[in-house]
Each structure stands twice: as structure tokens, then as C-alpha cells.
Amino acid sequence: MIRACPADTVVCVQSASALSRCRLWLHDRPFTADCLLAVALAVGYTGFFAAMADLTPEFDLDWPRSLIIMAPFAVIALRRRALWAGVALGVAIMAVAVFWEPAQVMGADSGIGFFVLTYTAAAWRSLREALLVAAAIWSPVAVVIYTGVGSGIDHVTATILVMVNLVMAATVFWIGWVVRNRREKVEELSERARFAEERQEALAAQAVADEQRRIARELHDVVAHHISVIGVMSEGAKRVLRTDPDAAEEALATVNQTARTALREMRDILTVLRQGHDEAGAADLEPQPTVDSLRALVAQTKDAGLPVRYTVRGQEYPLPTGVSLAVFRIAQEALTNTIKHAGPQARAGVVVDYGETEFRISVGDSGTGAPVVAGFSGGHGLIGMRERATLYGGTLESGPRPGGGYLVEARFPKNAHLQGVTR
User: Fold this and answer.
1) What is the mean pLDDT of the chain?
2) Which residues of 134-147 are buried (b: 16+ CB within 10 A; e: fewer)?
3) Could you give the 3-state DSSP secondary structure of residue 182?
4) ∠ CA 238-249-251 to the nearest 5 degrees?
5) Integer Cα distance of 381 and 369 in angstroms
6) Which of 167, 200, 233 is the last residue of a domain?
7) Is residue 405 part of a domain?
8) Transmembrane residues, as ranges (predicted)?
């Protein structure tokens, strides 16, 4: 059911909007706002004295007196643009008023303007400067009041007037100081909020970057190995297609099986990326490879034509899930590089060492290097392996072996990231 808004509600909203726009306009123009405030106070103060003149015939409000009454409010216009100039102008106007008509000093001084200047100094200037401004204003005021002693004002009355003015000035000063502290506190909180927001954005950006690197590593590890095997086996099948059809058929069968495996693993990754880990059904996804999957990896590599020896040393113990996956991916990438670079006569070895203080995985080969199959080298393998090792507090070393061939070795602390330990 739709109801029409009452007319008075619409008017209130429009009035509030107009008032908000006016406040913003004045906030951006402080000097204009101060001038308007000075004019408004001057007109109102002069109007008050004009009303008194009508009620009190003996009080003659002529133009000179009107100017003396209105002039002190000019200092308000200078309170933020030129505070000290305003102080000097106010004291000068007060001196002229005393010289012009001493009997009327108390009614024509710069009282309101001085209070505004005192507040401004306390609210916007340093404590030292604010105290100097207050002294520069209220010391002359006390002198002017005491000059009236003997001209209708006794010493006690003058002292009371001085004390009243100083108490009011101290009150105004305290209000300005409280406003200053509150403003600084708000600015500090705003700065903290801004810093926290920037830090949150930086953390979010870092999380996105980390996730992008993780996805890149997974895609590289999954695709690079299988595509490299497909590339090598298809090249071999092409060479022996006419001379040894049985070998070519066996190679093509390996290509077919490898392609299916690559597609299945790619599907699993894309499913997790699209639905999230919580939404992706466990039945739809293959389990993540672990250290126990190395035997199958070695067998697959042998089927691709690379002789591989698999060795396990030490008493086996469970590894954290992340470390176990990292070990498998490092071995997978190292064997992929061996297939691509070691040459046709190369042999490889995978050593898994369950040490007392650290876990070590080594993948070496006896190759002398071979041309890379066109299109099957992206240059990101070693970077990805090192990132995986570093992520779990491990280290990775790689390079040529002294007796020939190439060695990749990763080490992980035995107790690294024990949360979520599985085999």
C-alpha cells in the first residue's frame, strides 16, 4: 500500500536540505561566514541600543555613538583570517572609545568581539599563542576599567567588573579549548579509521594477489605436467608411426589417458573456483594429491618413456595437508622438467626422506639437456616450486649436479604447519 507523504513533511525535508547546503557553502567560505556573523551581531547590538534610546529619552544614540557601538564587531570578521590584526583593531577601537566618551566606555567597548577572539584563539591556535592573545586582550580591558575609577566608578566596582570579565573570558577560553580537544580527537579517530580502511584494502589486495598466485601455481602444476607428457608422447608417436605402429598406438593411448586426467583435474579446479570450497560437493571432486600419490606419478612418468627410480628413506610419518600437496607438486614439476629438458637417454630418481627434524624430497636426473618441445615451456616452474616450499616454511634448491644432470631438492621442517595434518 502506497501512501502520499504529508505536505508538511516534504516542506521539512526541503528546508533541511536547503539548510544543509547553506552550512556547506559557509563552511567552504570561512571569511564570508565571519563577515556575515559580524554584520548580524552589529545590527542586533545597535538595534538593542536604539530600542533603549526610545525608552530612555536622556540616552541620545547619534551616528558617532552608533559607529562606536558597531565598530568593535569588525574584529569578528578577522578572527580566522588575521587573528592578531583583529586583536590590535579591537584594542584600538576600545582606546578610541575611551578617548571619545569615557563615561560610555562600558557600553561601547569591544566586549562581544573580544570574547569571540578569545574563543577562536583557544579553539584554533596553540596553547601558548592562545594565552598570549588572551593577555593581549584582557590586560587592556582591565586597564580601561580601572581608568574609570574616579569618574563615577569606585575601586571596588572596578575590581568586581574586572573579575567578572576575567571569569567570563576564562569560561569562553575553556569552551574553546574543549572544542579544540574534541575536534582533534575526531580528527585522530578519522585518521585511524582512514588508516584502518587503507590497511584493510591493502590486506584485501594482498589476499587477492596471494589467491591469484595460488591459482596460477595450481593451473601450472596441473597443466604443465600433463601437456608436457602429451607433447613428448605425441612427438614420439609421430616418429615411430610407420616403423613401429604398436609403439605409436601405445604412446597415443598414454596421450589419451593423460589428456583425460588433465581435463578431470582442470574441472576440479574450476569447480572449486566457481562454487567455493564449501559449496563444491566432495563426491564431484577428486581428492587432492599427497605424498602417497607419488608412486602413481612415478608410474605415469615411466609410461611417458622416462625411467624413474622411487626410493623412500626413514620411518614414515604424517605430513600436513598443505605440505603433502606441495611435495607432490614439486615432484610433479621436477619430473615434468626432466621430460622436457633431460634428453631421450636420461634416467631420473625420486627420493623421499623422512628425517628426524625435516622432511626432504629430491628429484634428480642424469640428462645432458635437450631442446624444449615448442610451446611447452613457460618459465614459471622453478618459481612455483620455490613459492610452494616457502609457503610452508621450507626451502628449495635446484641446479646442475656435479657429475652431470640436474637436481631439485626441497626441505620442510618436520613440525611445519601441523594444523589439519593428514596423509
Assistant:
1) 78
2) bebbbebbbebbee
3) helix
4) 65
5) 16
6) 200
7) yes
8) 31-51, 63-78, 83-100, 106-124, 131-149, 155-179
For the stretch 252-304, pLDDT in tens is 777 777 777 777 777 766 665 666 555 445 445 566 788 999 999 898 888 87
What single-letter DSSP state applies at residue 151? Answer: T
Please count the structural domains in the chain: 2
Which residues, other chains included, contact 365 with Cβ-Cβ below 8 Å and sequence gap of 6+?
338, 342, 346, 347, 348, 349, 405, 406, 407
User: Would you say residue 328 lies in a domain?
Assistant: yes
Residue 269 C-alpha cell reads as: 579446479
DSSP single-letter state for residue 107: G
User: Count of CB atoms within 10 A of residue 387's CB?
Assistant: 17
Residue 330: CATH number of its domain: 3.30.565.10
DSSP structural state of residue 153: B
Residue 129 burial class via C-beta count within 10 angstroms: exposed 0-12, middle 13-18, buried 19 and up: middle
Higher-pLDDT residue of 368 and 95 is 95
- What is the rounded average pLDDT of the residues 91-103? 72
127 belongs to a structural domain: yes
Same domain, 183 and 304: no
All residues at 6 or more sequence positions from 293 whose CB lies less than 8 Å from its CB, including other chains: 328
Q: Which three cell numbers mark 327?
A: 611435495
C-alpha cell belonging to residue 362: 629430491
- Average pLDDT for 212-228: 69
Q: Is the pTM of this model over 0.70?
A: no
The reply to whether 153 and 23 lie within a common domain is yes
**In which band, very low, low, confident or very high, does the pLDDT at 71 lie, cut at 50, 70 and 90?**
confident
- Among 151, 166, 200, residue at a domain's last position: 200
Given a cut of 50, is residue 79 above it in pLDDT? yes
